[in-house]
Write a structure and sequence with these properties.
Elements: E1 3-6, H1 15-24, E2 29-32, E3 34-35, E4 38-39, H2 45-57, E5 61-65, H3 79-95, E6 99-102, H4 117-134, E7 137-141, H5 151-161, E8 166-171, H6 172-177, H7 182-190, E9 194-199, E10 201-202, E11 209-210, H8 219-229, E12 234-237, E13 243-245, E14 248-250, H9 252-269
Parallel strand pairs: 1-12, 2-5, 5-6, 6-7, 7-8, 8-9, 9-12
Antiparallel strand pairs: 3-4, 10-11, 13-14
């Protein structure tokens, strides 16, 4: 039984609308990235309390904190970012979220990723130690432009850190946008460390993000393989069908629903039960 979730702020900046639409689609979990246009890590106490109240009212839980941790350049000051990681971990504890999404730092244009590899690994070890202390698991997303944007470098990050508190999130669209055939080039390599899937597809020729199964992200092949492997994790809708930017994206209720329908159509066709 696969568990569906989704980036709730893709639906609306208003948390009430996020919860209503998610509930109407039958989701039991959401991924919390922003509320009322404010990043989840920047919500004040009253705002966090209101988020919790609304989630409870709609019987929704949090699959992951969609944090921006690791979305700074590899040569930027790291110490304030460790504080952000500690706050993200505390928020995960407060919301009973098992995962916190992170990234492995932007590499400046023209820089050979190999030259910053050791810095990245040291930083990721420090983030994983914060997660270990808090009892949560970090999921590294293969965002384009960061060190871990290809399957080989994703594997390097997770195996070099070597912590049970750092695993991988899989984003097919991001792989397509850096010239990777996700399933063909990355699945066998990364499957041992894969615990979380972000549902997004893209067209290789243009980089345009499209609903699941309508691009070159090899979503059907990936779903089949995960089904046959007995995968039992979260699948988080992150459609980006209306807008995309460095800290997230937006779809709106109608396009978010279209994205849900596109993915669940694949699941139905492949005989995969979900909730």
């Amino acid at each position: 039984m696969w568990t569906l979730s989704g980036f709730a702020d893709e639906i609306s900046p208003e948390v009430e609308t996020q919860c209503v639409v998610a509930s109407e689609l039958g989701l039991r979990f959401v991924e919390l990235r922003s509320a009322w246009g404010t990043n989840v890590l920047d919500l004040d106490d009253d705002q966090r309390g209101e988020v919790v109240r609304l989630l409870h009212r709609h019987d929704l839980r949090v699959s992951s904190i969609g944090s921006p941790v690791g979305k700074i350049a590899v040569d930027e000051d790291f110490d304030p970012h460790v504080d952000r990681m500690r706050h993200a971990a505390r928020l995960a504890q407060e919301l009973d979220a098992p995962y916190v999404r992170v990234f492995s730092f932007f590499v400046r244009p023209g820089t050979d990723p190999a030259t910053v590899r050791d810095v990245v690994v040291r930083r990721m070890r420090a983030l994983a130690e914060v997660a270990r202390t808090a009892g949560v698991v970090l999921v590294h997303e293969n965002e384009k432009g960061i060190y871990g944007d290809t399957p080989e470098r994703c594997l390097d990050v997770v195996e070099s850190v070597g912590s049970e508190h750092l695993a991988l999130a899989w984003d097919s669209a991001n792989f397509v946008q850096v010239g990777v055939r996700p399933f063909t080039d990355g699945y066998a390599l990364l499957r041992p460390h894969l615990v979380y899937v972000q549902v997004k597809d893209a067209v290789a020729a243009t980089g345009a993000v499209v609903p699941a199964g309508r691009g070159d992200g090899e979503l059907v092949e990936t779903v089949r393989a995960l089904r046959d492997d007995g995968f039992d994790g979260f699948f988080s809708l992150e459609p980006h069908l209306s807008d995309a930017h460095s800290l997230g994206g937006f779809s709106g209720p109608e396009l978010f629903t279209e994205a849900w329908e596109a993915f669940t159509t694949i699941l139905d066709a492949e005989g995969v039960p979900y909730r």
